[in-house]
Amino acid sequence: MLGFSNGSGGGGVGAEDLAQLQSTMRAIELACSYIQINSNPVAAEATILSLHQSPQPYKACRYILENSQVANARFQAAAAIRESAIREWSFLATDDKGGLISFCLGYVMQHANSSEGYVLSKVSSVAAQLMKRGWLEFTPAQKEVFFYQINQAILGSHGLDVQFIGVNFLESLVSEFSPSTSSAMGLPREFHENCRKSLEQNFLKSFYQWAQDAALSVTSKIIESHSSVPEVKVCNATLRLMHQILNWEFPYSKGGTRASINVFSDGIRPDNALSRKTECVIVQPGASWCDVLLSSSHVGWLINFYSSVRQKFDLEGYWLDCPVAVSARKLIVQLCSLAGEIFPSNNVQMRDQHLLLLLTGVLPWIDPPDVISKEIEEGRSGSEMIDGCRALLSIGTVTTPVVFDQLLRSLRPFGTLTLLSMLMGEVVKVLMANSTDEETWSYEARDILLDTWTTLLTSMDGSGGNAWLPPEGIHAAASLFSLIVESELKATTEDDADCLASVSAMDERLGSYALIARAAVDATIPFLAKLFSDHVARLHQGRGTVDPTETLEEVYSLLLIIGHVLADEGEGETALVPDALQSHFVDVVEANNHPVVVLSSSIIKFAEQCLDAEMRSSIFSPRLMEAVIWFLARWSFTYLLLVEECNLGSNKLQSLPSRACLFTYFNEHNQGKFVLDIIVRISLTSLTSYPGEKDLQELTCFQLLHALVRRRNICFHLLSLDSWRNLANAFANDKTLFLLNSVSQRSLAQTLVLSAYGMRSSDASNQYVKDLMAHMTSSLVDLSNSSDLKNLAQQPDIIMLVSCVLERLRGAASATEPRTQRAIYEMGLSVMNPVLRLLEVYKHESAVIYLLLKFVVDWVDGQLSYLEAHETAVVINFCMSLLQIYSSHNIGKISLSLSSTLLNEAKTEKYKDLRALLQLLSHLCSKDMVDFSSDSIETQSTNISQVVYFGLHIITPLITLELLKYPKLCFDYFSLISHMLEVYPETLAQLNNDAFSHVLTTVDFGLHQQDVDIVTMCLRALKALASYHYKEKNAGNSGLGSHAAGHTDPNGVFHEGILSRFLRTLLHFLLFEDYSTDLVSTAADALFPLILCEPNLYQGLGNELIEKQANPNFKTRLANALQVLTTSNQLSSSLDRLNYQRFRKNLNNFLVEVRGFLKTR
């Protein structure tokens, strides 16, 4: 029918048809030329689009491909075949489907020697995509026909050009079947998964073997030749294909089902890819691949091939970067990460032999490191050495450190760990010698080698232990760490850019450095202690006579390095003393002599010197203080005032005397309280003596002080310290602390309130918070009661005071806990009226308004779940008053007459305010879900849903479609709408017509967004709306009432009901618009109740679609599909879980059946 059945020629074409085909070809050629020269591109794109969207354009596309002299026109013709075939697949005849694929394959074979490779790649890609589209339909015999043709091409039966095309087609095919690179086809995820499973289990291994055979057929010619030969192109393609196949995820490598891959087996360590820069894919193809990858001498052939060609072209430096060399190295590196069941469990030597063979081949790329490094610096390409580093990373990922170290011992007098250390050391030396901003090969090599160390030193159980390292490995790690520290200190004094870096700028590397140091703590901790002491001594010796800048920068870097070595980041979890530091120094019996204690104490003593004003001015610059504060925060959370049951680490370590020394020195019975007092005094100094140093103050508030209040036992001691009381007093009265930036104000207030947890009783905790915040609340109350408030409030110092107090109140509100909830509730209660008055007074001060709203949001969020019914009513009334006042001053405030700059600023202000109000309404919703009050649900006197809908009624006029283009506001708005419609659909009808219409208009807007999450929430809202109405009508109630019924306006124009409108919208969305297939199930859940609510409209819309089809076959198919949609799978009219599942399946089948020809214009 389409002229593709035999895959050739095209048969006879009449004169009239020929003229039409020629006309189409000329139009497409002209359009392509216009686009190329950017002349009338809109009309040209419309011409090309018409070809893509026209029904069954295959004859025209074939004619263009076979006759056009314009390559871009042929490219567009191939693209049109793909788009049309995917769209119309469901109603193409079986012969036509096969004919399309055969034509594309035949075309690329016949034009294999064409110089326009991108056209051939496109046609090959189209063939691959069409083969996948029909994969589950084609019989094994049909697939065999296709693949016989491909196999013959790959074996070289038709010449090198065709051989290359065959390999290139398999690349396209494998890419299409891989989830990460597959093309969208508008089909369910299940289809793609079934295709992937079939290819993996039945064909993928064969493809790899074909690529092996093709490579073997050309490599001898490449090795024997003295110049570049055509076989190189084929060889490169086969190597690329093999690498691509090994990148496959292999989820079905066991017995036909998804493999449950145990990454802890076979020496494979847990995936720590998130902590490293270099990607390393573990290859686990299963036992069935053993004969192809291991038993067939494939690895030996690959190593020998690369080595032979490398030796032959050794003098030609460019060869290392030529495509075939790069592809061969990539494949070798990939084979280094082979793991899993491919290695028989009863033959443990096979894996070691495999890795040794690969290491033997890789060794010339990286050893000796100094010689190779020198060659690279003299102009040789560094790509081979970098790939060698990647190979070590791959081997380290799939082995234990012991196996990794032993591999090299049969080839060298030292282990692989020593080689790794030598290699890393050489790279570090190059970095020290070439201190430039330009990132060279050495930067990349350093990152890869650090990732290798990280992988090896991250123990199997994640504890950080290092007992498995042999003495030689420990010595290598110690030597390397010493060199690393030297290089980092040198970099800080030479690189001006680094001197401006923040405390966390080096964190990406310091974590790896710490692991290396912990692998040799017996050497590295004393080394760091001596180095730090020497630098401190140098600072004191040179005071007043020598510029200390260089030494200060080195101390800065040392503090960061030592902080990482001694402690891990404790964000989100309890920080443990690293096992490596607990398990060593076993001969130490005096705590004063424990190296970790010595090092920690020397730093604390140094930090204490900043309390002296003279020392502070001469040594402790703001930058150095940042490092001091950062170190104290990290260290104190791990070591300070340890409780016996905390920070224990491994059970086997608990009986060590050295561990007892380490754990008791900084506890409450020894130096703990003394050190805690020093840290608090340092914190107060950093806040009061360094005005304007934002980074330092944020580190102090966010990290150091926050770390102190994270443990209750420390809070207990804090409240007994004079220094802590001084900090609290300064917070309330010291004007210096009122100059902190907003986030520091908030954080400081939160920290001080959290410390109340250390009180002995709840009453004492509440009294502490009341006393702490009394000055803040009274200042707001006094200001709001001022008779001249309007004028007084506009003074800059008053605006700053109000802003500061609001930030502090917000910080206190965010620290709400059960023990302090009552005090914080009363704090908020006392400022309710002042907040409302200030909302009126500062209606033109957007920054203050936003702070007012955010305080209320955080306060309500922390309080609502604890409040009794009468207290809840107070909060609700307050929130309604706030909403009314805000609305009265902001409706219509954004004027289109403003300049574009002012308009954008106004939108941004409203965006922030409205997002805060939406968060407030969301928090109010939580009362019905999380309620710790003593009142039962029946005694609740306040209807939360009505309050929230009242809030929606007030703020919806403020939320324009323009403001919904702000992603965060959009997400918060639709989250609330979706939640409200799912939980409280019965109250939606209480909104007036304008508010109701506005809410549903925004839902319609959300349905057409690109963000899948937004569309999902809108669909969930529609489901809730329609299912509520349907159930209510069935129960004899009115449901949505007049909102669901159509009405005629005064002008005689009929307006359909809201459910009818969305049924029409959703059907159009599903049938004609582009969307993610992930949305189909959610859309089905919304469509099903809409159809049940409006069966007559559904029938009418179906009839309209049927009548629009000119093709009788399409009419019949569409009518049948519409009937099946609502009747198959025993679908009934009950909105239960089983029926929703049935309708999802029906809709998926319906869309596959009809969407293609309905979208054809």
**What share of the residues lie within helices?**
55-70%
Strand arrangement within the widest β-sheet reads 1-2
Tally of helical runs: 52
The portion of residues forming beta strands comes to under 5%
Integer tally of domains: 5
Write down the overall mean pLDDT: 86
Segments where pLDDT lies below 50 for 5+ residues? Answer: 5-11, 255-267, 269-274, 460-467, 496-501, 645-650, 894-903, 936-941
From the spread of the alpha carbons, the general shape counts as: flat
Structural class: mainly alpha
Query: What assembly state would you assign to the polypeptide chains in this entry?
Result: single chain
Distance between the termini: 20 Å
| Biggest sheet descriptor | 2 strands, antiparallel
Question: Mind telling me the C-alpha Rg?
Answer: 36 Å
Number of strands: 2
